[in-house]
Amino acid sequence: MPQAANPAERAAIDALLGPPASGWDGGTRTDLDGHVAFGGLHGAAADRHLLLPALWEIQDQIGHISKGAMNYICERLSVPPADAYGVASFYSLLATSDRSSRIAHVCDDIACRNAGATEILEELSDRADVHTGPCLGQCERAPAAFFQLAGQRDRVVAPATTSAIQDVLDLNRVAEPTPVAESTPQLRNGAQDLSVMARVGRVDPLSLDSYLAHGGYIALRRALTMGPQAVVTEVKESKLRGRGGAAFPMGIKWEAVAAEPAADKYVVCNADESEPGTFKDRVLIEGDPFAIVEAMTIAGYAVGAGTGYFYIRGEYPDAQSSFEEAVQSARRAGLLGADIEGSGFGFDIEVRRGAGAYICGEETALFNSIEGFRGEPRQKPPFPTQAGLFGKPTVINNVETLINVLAIVTAGGDTFAGTGSAESTGTKVFCLSGHVHRPGVYEVEFGASLGELLAMAGGVVGDFKAALVGGAAGSFLMGDRLDLPLTFEATRNAGASLGSGVIMAFNSDTDFVDLVLRIGAFFRDESCGQCVPCRVGTMRQEESLLRLAAGSGDEGSLLADVAQVMSDSSICGFGHAASWAVQSALRSGLIGGSS
Amino acid sequence: MTAVPLGEPRRLVSLTIDGQEVTAPEGSTVLDACRRQDIDVPTLCYLENLTPVNTCRVCMVEVEGSRTLVPSCSREITEGLEVRTDSERVATSRKLVFELLVSSIDMSLVDAPTLGWMNHYEVDAERFGSAAKTVDQEVKIQDDLYVRDYGKCMLCYKCVEACGEDAQNTFAIAVAGRGFDSGISTEFDTPLPESACVYCGNCVAVCPTGALMFKTEYDMRAEGSWDESAQSVTTTICPYCGVGCNLELHVQDNEIVKVTSPIDHDVTSGHLCIKGRFGYEHVQNR
Q1: A455 in contact with B at a CB cutoff of 8 Å?
Q2: For residue A506, what are the contacts with CB-CB under 8 A and spacing of at least 6?
């Protein structure tokens, strides 16, 4: 007899999915069940996309996913239990075995370990309910801790101390989250220059009226009068490139999806910001959520999509609730839903919460995650514009990229293209952390140099040694690169990459071997495991770095070989980039004996 | 005589492989096109009767205009495609993928073609050191029909596909966990007899590394009596029902030691049910 869900588990699932309709999907069996058809497998399998939300519901309410709860979810959604287990065990925030219902995930990633996380973890090392984890996207107030509290809202505490962590776990003493405008220092040098961040800190993120008073929904109204084709043209002319890391021209994506004849298309906003050192999207979501709602609506209008998905990383509970409130306010005001502003165009947004998997920021892995499968990337082609979410043509853009659409539609693509540099138009929001005096998000017009940005963040604490630009999937830039303009083209020519806009500064006291080891461990931890080069390669890379740290002299050729096979033959960008930071640290002499 | 279905006529697409102009029917993959030319391309996770998952990455080729190498098993050919299978870059990548595999799993039971490729690419896994982490673990023996030795599992996804949509539609197993620690598992690692498994053995039939194995073969290997050169293979038709599945009975010392079905048989495509696969005891109940 399969194990049954207990009443609390059943109630949690029924609250999400509604009560079961019959004995076929987990309800009480009646005589009638033998005589009724319920749309067959096809109808039932259509609910698979609710698997991750259902697993989250149990995790949130109960604290772990028991066999009984899993069975009940599977009955309700017609998902095979082995499959559901495969999905649940993929995500680090979902527990498939009994554990404490109150868990702290203390970030020991690059920024936090330089800000005291190592010491905190040492002091709490005897506690089973304190876990270490990858970057929590709170680098400007490192060290950070994320709490999963069953039956309560999940919380973030940053900066965290040993006693603050104990207080949350043992005494349930949690301070209210600090509004982002107070927590995140930004330099407002000439406030009118800011574009993407223009409203952050000024607008009340929970009030639609406040958003409207700060120029909100002017862009959507303008778009509705322009017509979809004209919106795509403006976006194309703006030469806007994606801000999530791949720097793909946004107009080309939009144009391709708009041209697809499919009846169902989707807009996806990628808010799974997990690149170590990146926190700009969190600041934008917490500080100006309506801008994202509006930009997604414009995207839907331009390409002919009726549904948008907002996929946010699980470690951002505050950003998620701020976005969810914005969606609800927009719905109430008729700015989402059927017939927006009397235009005949209908659009709505669903929010999906990731569950602790960096790889789900990869676009096709993100689709699989929404669809209720393991977050494993797909081989491309086909590209998302042809076959994306649910196999339909899909526009997928990062948060910051989407917000740029508002300025493009309002001011015109030409005007936008006139700012920044030739290939990098507009502004860029950089995330500065590490050894700088004022870590935070800084928006500049493209063209500012590395040195200028470091200066904006108050300069380097101590003697500058290197900056990790682009995150764990980025590369180290040394003192001779301080003049390098941080544009897509200039960084590419310098053999580096802007990535998601991470600038992590390190002074000469930094233990780079330890730092690069953490990057190696990060990639080994976060590899989805699907393809051999990345699954085994990230393990061999870390082992080699460990030997290097222990004083082995000759790891260069092995690391180079592993790097080559990972970047040549992995399925997705994760594997392709898994060796970049390590290789650049070797090239710059930060590790490998010659430093 | 077997009737051969011809199917829809397909347009021929021309492409270049290793500098040679060739043609292949529209809808073919690069791998199909290579094999039409007798160009040897190694494969591990690919099988004719399963949907390509391109996870093993040994069939990689160079395609003009592509930044990375391309899995030939899943890339459909297009007009004018320029493919290289013989470049230094391709050879290096294949060699390294084999080395990564050998360094992490027990590949002692792979088939002859795979051994041939490993020799060809001069695979040397020693370079990763004796401390290189492997997936070595205890063999799972939970019933009398087949064993699961996941220390030999290369995670090719074939068994999951055969258990699921590509053949059996039972969905008893899936990939669980993440990264290096991922592995094939039932829900919560429930023992097979208590899982949804129906013992069709289709997972055993598609396994390329011997991680899944008939219990008979496992026991005979353990006692040292397994000898493929002393085995005969007899093709017959399954006696149980009217479907007409072809069976290949592998017989050693007048005992059936393993049952397979030809992959090109149009009734089974190589897949069987528990009766055809394991229901042979009565034959030798003397």
Answers
A1: no
A2: A114, A434, A435, A464, A465, A466, A467, A468, A512, A515
Is there a single domain that holds both residue A292 and residue A393?
Answer: yes
List the beta bridge partners of residue B86. Answer: none
**What is the span of the domain harbouring residue A148?**
102-173
Q: Measured in whole angstroms, how far is the alpha carbon of residue B19 from the centre of its chain?
A: 30
Question: Stretch A370-383: mean pLDDT, rounded?
Answer: 96
From chain A, pick out residues whose CB is under 8 angstroms from the CB of B171.
80, 82-83
Q: Are strands A266-271 and A502-507 parallel, antiparallel or unpaired?
A: unpaired
| Low-confidence spans in chain B with pLDDT less than 50 | none
> pLDDT digit string (tens) for A54-81?
999 999 999 999 999 999 999 999 999 9
Do A227 and A362 have their domain in common? yes
The b/e string for A498-536 (b: 16+ C-beta within 10 A; e otherwise) is: bbbbbbbbbbeebebbebbbbbbbbbbbbbbbbbbbbbb
Chain A residue closest in CA terms to B75: A381
Q: What percent of chain A has pLDDT over 70?
A: 96
Read off the pTM.
Answer: 0.96
Same domain, A254 and A400: yes
Q: How many CA atoms lie within 13 A of A129 on its CB side?
A: 19
User: Both tokens of residue A284?
Assistant: 């934008």
B133 and chain A in contact, CB less than 8 A: yes
d(CA B235, CA B129): 46
Chain A residue whose CA is closest to B171: A80
Establish if A431 belongs to a structural domain. Answer: yes
Strand A348-353 with A307-312, pairing: parallel
Q: Looking at residue A190, what is its pLDDT?
A: 41
Domain count for chain A: 5
Residue written as tokens 């020693």? Answer: B126
